[in-house]
Every structure is written in C-alpha cells, then in structure tokens.
Write the structure tokens for this entry.
Amino acid sequence: MPKHIVSGLKYLTAVELIRDGYNQKEVAKILEMDRSTVSHYLNGRNLSWNSIEVAEIITKFCPRDFLTLTFALLNDSEKTRIIVKTCSKKEFHATVEDSCIGCGLCADTCLMNAIVLDDLKAHIDSEWCCGCLMCGDVCPTNSIKISEEKNGC
Amino acid sequence: MVANTKEVKAKDMCVKRSSPEEKRELSFKDEICVGCGICEQICPVEAIELGDIGAIVRTGAEVPKISIDENKCVLCGMCSVGCPADALEFKLDDISIKEMDEYPSLIKSAEIDDDTCIYCKACETACPREAITIARSLPDRSKLVTGEIEIDKNTCISCGVCEEMCPADAIVMEHHEPTSVDPTVSSDIYVDKDKCVYCLICRKSCPVDAIKAVCRSCSYGDYDLKPEDSEIEGSSFIDDESCINCGWCKEICPVDAAEVKKPFKGELSIDQDKCTTCGACVDICPCDVLSFPKPAESGQIPEKVFKDERFCIYCGACGKVCPVEAIDVKRTDVNYTPTKSKSWKNKMESLKS
Amino acid sequence: MELKVNQDNCLGCGVCVVACPVNVSISPEVAGGHGSKTTETIMMVENGVIKLFSEDKCTKCGTCQKFCPTDAIWLE
C-alpha cells in the first residue's frame, strides 16, 4: 500500500510540474523516474485512481502531517521536498526576529532545507517553507514567525 | 528528531549535535574553569548551572565546576564566547568559533615583547596561573671575571687558609699526611680558573703573600672584557590556555615588556563590615587580586580582605562565592569584537552590571 | 552538594561554628567563641558534638571543612 500512495504522490507532482511548464524529460529527472513511467503516469496508466485519491487527501492534510507522512513514506528527503513544495497549495511567509541566536536547531530540524544561517541568524526561504512550523517548535528563543500568505485552494 | 549527545571524561565534558549539514560541539575543560559563572549567566536556555564553587575549589571535590544539561543546550556557543578563561570551546565543523568573524569574541591578550624583556623571571614567578615560562641562558661566568690569580708555589707554606677562605671553592690543595720520605702536608695546590671570580680574598688572607693577581681590566693588562660576553639571552612563552589576562606580568615587569588587554572593565567593592574572613574569595580568585593583610604591628587590626584591582578581570567569581554577600563586582565595560547579530550583541552587553 | 557531619569524629571544638561565615552573620556573638544562642545558625555544638540545625542556609563555601581538624564536617 505505501508504494501505491507514493506513486499517487508522484503522479500528482508530475501533473503539477507539467502544468508549471516542465517537460516530461525534466519531470523524470526531478522525480528520479524513467521517462516512460512519467509518460504512463500522465496518461493515467499503471496507477489506481484509489491511490491518487489517497495521495490527494494527504496533500490536503495540515502541512506538518503532509510533510512528515510523505517523508515517512519515501524516506528520501530530496524527493519529499520536491513533492511537498509542488503539491502544497498553501504559501507561507516566514520571518525571523532579531532575538534569534543562530543556534541552528531550526535548520537542523527543517525537512524542507529551507533554513540557512547567516551572520548568526536563521534565514528562512519562504519559497521552500511548507508551513509545518517544526522550526518554531524547536526555536529556544521563539524567534520564528510563520504566517500563511493566501490559500490557493 | 534532532538530539544532542554528551560525553563525560572525568570532570571534562563535551556536548555535540550533528546534522548532514553541520556538526556542533561544545567542550568544557574543568581544569581551566575559574568558576566565575558567566556561562550560567549568558546561556539563553538555562542549560548551564554553576556548581557549589566554594566547596568544589576549596575542598578539592571530584565534581565539575559547572554542569551542562544536554537536553536543554541548543549549542549556540554563547557560553564559550563569554568565558574569560576559555574553559568552554565551541566548534562548528571542527573549527573554533573564535576564528570566525561573524561570532563576537572577548578582546583579551597577554604578550611579552622579547626585544624588551630582560628575562628577570619576575612575571614567571608572579603569574597566578603559572602560564609564563621564561627560558634564559646566562653568560659564561669565567668570561666576566676581571682578572686571575696565580700561586707562587715556592713561597706557599700549604697552610690551606686560601682554600678555606675561597667563597667559590676555586682553590684546591692536595692534602696528605707528611712522612719522613715526603715531610710536607700537601703535594700540590692549584686554582680552578672556571670557578675563580677574582675576589682576591685569597691574596688578602695569605699569611706569606704567595698569591699574585693579574688584573684584566687595568690598562696594563693583556685582557679585554667584551660586552657581548655579558649578554643574557632568552625567550618568553605564555600558555594561552592557562593565561587569564590578569595583568600581573604587566604590573610586575621592570622594563614594561608585557602588554595585557583585559576583557572587562569594572569595579570591585568589598564591604569590610560584612566580611567574616572565611577566605573563600581569596581561594577562588584566579588572579590573586585578594589577600589577607598582615598587621603592621602586633595587636593592630588590619582591614579584613585586601584587594589590588590592577590584577582584577572582573570575572565576578569572588562575589558569587562570598557566603555573606560582602563582595560586589560591577562590570562597566565588555570588550568584544563586533557582530551583526543583535541577540548576541544584547547578550554581550548583558554582561555589564 | 550537601553538608554532612560525622559526630563520631567530632571533638566538639566548635571551630566550624566560629569559622562559618553564615553563622557569624546570623548570630554575631559566635565570632567571639561564645557559641550560638539560636537554632537559626547552620550548626552548633550540642552535648559536646556538632549538630546541624539550619543546613538549608549553607552556601557551600567549604570554610567549615577547611577548618575542621578531624574531618567531622564536610560537603559531599
């Protein structure tokens, strides 16, 4: 079953990427799949609609559950990042306050690799932020503020 | 989840956190720690606790001076930056943050200028942390002697007065029991020129004027004293790990060869009325700032604790250890390298009282 | 660390009572060697041996241990 859900997630990602203007070759490279598999996916072959439905439900979970579940299913941080970034319909705006001490706990925690440290301060790339808020949970100085920008759904 | 690990080795400890991107490591060396508690004060997450420092230092208890709670520590490195003794070291990917420009660091140093230093060793003796080593090679003493003596063996009566008087043990007589074959008390007498310092005690004490002296420094002499023969050569070394930048070397140096930059400026005040002379502050002070004065005459009562702030680094260890709150240490200035981080700047500024 | 006593070792000399800086500030007369008149002090000699009364006031400076001739009072 997990395999099927992963296929469903990949299918959804592939569809989104094509919509964003990537060609099949590029999509195959991003998702580390055969080009023919991508083609099959996009044509709705080799895939049960059930798994797509389950995958769709997962993408609509709260961001943290979507992220952690996807990571648990794939056990691959790079692909998790791509799938979550592509399939998440929500946009977030992240700010780090000056009380940040640069301990790097948030950067180490962020599964999306959206956080880097510069001059002893965390910088969050809102482009990659999936809104899971795990960074804020570990922050010892409560310096991270993440707000949802708009709802794409 | 991201979790810290802690390694404890005797009284030293090391807290680590690793991610694929970065390795963070905080290490503590108990031997260097002065027990000032600045780390406890600066830690943003209350992960550090200063032990019962008076008891630990004074009774030699086998417990570390501080404890670090690895579950609270976020490995930010602030404690290492505040530590005036460098007992805490913080490394990012095996590089100390002291070498990184983005991190502030306390401005402190101690240097001895070897060109000015006369290698008198006063600083080595005074240094409360035994951080200074002065290596020196002294001139060859025999080259500085201004003359030499000669014993006229025909006049000498082998009385042994010169041998007994010579303060440098430079005159040796070969004593023996007189026999009918050789009715003398000595077979020979000679002068060890390496030992003789030309003090002429022998000549003055010789009852028969058997000792002749040849002065090298007089204009008729054949000898010249070369200034280079009296040169003292050497080198100085300060062990940065033990050095606490207290300024003893600078203050005691007779030729101003030592330069010390201290991390903090401040004020140390002692309430002599509250003090019960328990000596905890004297024992804990890493800089020998405090001592108990001896009365000038018997029966006189001197002040209880004497301080010389020239040697104080305002670490505050004495104030923390005093059981009756008789000591107040104020820090008015903290010297540190600039940082762009506001939170770090605030923390460094918070060390001022 | 905790303040401990071993009454079997104690000579009852009272040096710790006098040396303890906290005792002296609580009850100044102990500095003169007169003994404490209040159980507010950390320790006192009672029936010839040392006894702890208000050990919660101890600041763990280690002075008593330093002065005790028989290791009858210590921090552990």
Notes: The helical segments of chain A are 2-19, 24-30, 35-42, 49-59, 63-74, 77-87, 105-109, 134-138. Residues 90-151 of chain A form a domain with the Alpha-Beta Plaits fold (CATH 3.30.70.20). The two ends of chain A are 27 Å apart (CA to CA).
